[in-house]
Write a structure and sequence with these properties.
The protein has 2 domains: 136 residues, Fructose-1,6-Bisphosphatase, subunit A, domain 1 (Fructose-1,6-Bisphosphatase, Chain A, domain 1, 2-Layer Sandwich), CATH 3.30.540.10; 116 residues, D-Maltodextrin-Binding Protein, domain 2. It is 33% helix and 23% strand. The protein contains 7 helices and 13 strands. A 7-stranded mixed sheet has the order 3-4-5-6-7-8-9, sandwiched between helices. Strands 10-11-13-12 form a 4-stranded mixed sheet, with helices on both faces. It has a two-stranded antiparallel ribbon with strand order 1-2. The chain is globular, with a radius of gyration of 17 Å.
Length: 267
């Protein structure tokens, strides 16, 4: 696999990050499906920047972004290579000025993620990984944590924009609270997964994520020595929606899967 893929990925992410910083605090906000599901001009502008760079380098590749395919020709592309892009993961954070957001970009081939990056332009932390080549934070190799049990673990969770009392997300959260050392919610699925790869979080789960939310994070965690599956332990698939369970190591994975499957059955 060519590292040129990753270099284009990095160029696109850093360029999109600059767009986001330049537009911070000077945007209007629209709703998607509900008042909690936000989109801004910054989402669209950042995606256009990414699309221009990656399709400029690889015009035959397919492009799937959260804000839709901005170039009509890309929707008919038959290439097996596909870029999965969230131009601004953590839009609500961005709108409120919370410095936990950024572009998430991954290149897939079939069911494999070849490379992926997440860039937080506010902290200037750049997370990158290439299949078979390891994962890095600002050039330093990352490794998932070695914590073996939930009682010593700090996991992260994501809730959907519309959470019902009967949702498996809430059931899992309530089940996990007394079992874990503590639980965090950053507001960015991509950031959660990058932090698992870096050993800051020990695990992450969500019952409804889009492919562009988790593709880059998947290769980051796998190349850092972690495990990524569905919450029932089966192999991850980039479908819509895509439930995910990502953890640091096999021992913690077994305990978390047991907790998550129990929560889903009793939600």
């Amino acid at each position: 696999m060519s590292s040129y893929y990753l270099s284009v990925c990095e160029e696109a992410a850093r360029s999109a990050g600059k767009v986001l910083v330049d537009m911070l605090g000077n945007i209007s906000v629209r709703h998607k499906k509900n008042p909690r599901d936000l989109v801004t001009e910054a989402d669209v502008a950042a995606q256009k920047t990414i699309e221009t760079i990656v399709l400029g380098a690889f015009p035959d590749h397919r492009f799937l972004g959260e804000e839709g395919n901005l170039s009509p020709s890309t929707s008919n592309c038959t290439s097996e290579f596909c870029w999965l892009v969230d131009p601004l993961d953590g839009t609500t954070n961005f709108v409120h000025g919370v410095p936990c957001f950024g572009p998430s970009i991954a290149l897939t081939k079939g069911t494999e993620v070849l490379c992926g990056v997440f860039y937080n332009p506010m902290t200037e932390e750049f997370f990158s990984a290439e299949k078979g080549q390891g994962a890095f934070l600002n050039g330093k190799r990352m490794q998932t944590s070695h914590r073996q049990t939930l009682v010593e673990a700090l996991p992260a969770v994501t809730f959907p924009t519309q959470s019902e009392r009967s949702s498996p997300d809430l059931a899992a959260f309530l089940k996990a609270m007394p079992l874990c050392q503590s639980i965090r919610r950053t507001g960015s699925a991509a950031l959660n997964m990058a932090y698992v790869a870096a050993g800051r979080f020990d695990a992450y789960w969500a019952f409804a994520c889009h492919p562009w939310d988790i593709a880059a994070g998947t290769v980051l965690i796998l190349e850092s020595g972690g495990i990524v599956t569905k919450p029932d332990g089966s192999p991850i698939e980039f479908t819509d929606p895509a439930p995910i369970c990502a953890v640091a190591n096999e021992t913690l994975h077994r305990e978390l899967i047991e907790m998550l499957t129990f929560s889903e059955r009793h939600s």
